[in-house]
Amino acid sequence: MLRIVTDSAADLLPDERDALGITVAPLRIQFPEGMVNSEDISRDEFYARLEAMWPQIPSTSLPPPGVFSELYREIAQRDKDILSIHISSGLSNTFESASLGARDVENANIDIVDSMTLSGGQRYQVLSAALAAQAGKSKPVILDQLNQIRKSTETIYTLDTLSYLAKGGRIGRVQALTGSLLNIKPLIHVDRTDGKYSTIGKERTITRALETIASHLAEEYGDTRLWVSVIHGQAPDYADQLTKLLREKINVAKLESLRISPVLGVHTGPKIVGASVVPISLMEVPD
Fold it and tell me: Domains of the chain by range and CATH?
């Protein structure tokens, strides 16, 4: 059977990981008192520690190639076919590390996939691949499905401050909004062409930013039936507001609320809120 590997940025739920046999390569968070596996710290504990550190923030680190090599070899003892799907290469070097690790494994057929996104968007690809693998679909069929999902997924969010992105060096093309404008509420999405952050607008309040997110998705998807994942760090009220707006403005076939991984929260802060969206038809197991 084809085995699916991903990393902590995919925001998989533990039940999904266990039911579908997905292996998660851990991304790690370096606090002053030591390194923590992102999978081993609760969201609320993480944000309490993040707040206590401010104005400093922890650093993050990815598994080195040797960790991936060891992981792939362990899987290959049972299953020789492996599909490893990772956070966008435009935002992290995890894809490169996995690719290097795979080169040292001789007894397995390993494909490394750049999701070109993260969080809910990456999760769609991982879930689709795992469900298709469980149904016995071939790797070429699954890779084609992932390509379609990648092209049709939007991940968009807003923040109450750009300070965390700026401190973590992840601000990229959002740089033009820093400085005197740190108090604005940017609309940030992951660009499908290169998997990097890009802004599509800005607002003065979170409420207006959430309205703009909903309008943007309505314009992009029209009446298409959608799987919607509302994502937030530690902002349930904002998530509820966005959920209400999305139900009003787009054709929601399935909606869930997710809390983003701590390893992503390092660079966004607790008040991130947004959504990942994909046509639900693309999440069906391919023929």
Answer: 3-151 (3.40.50.10170), 153-283 (3.30.1180.10)
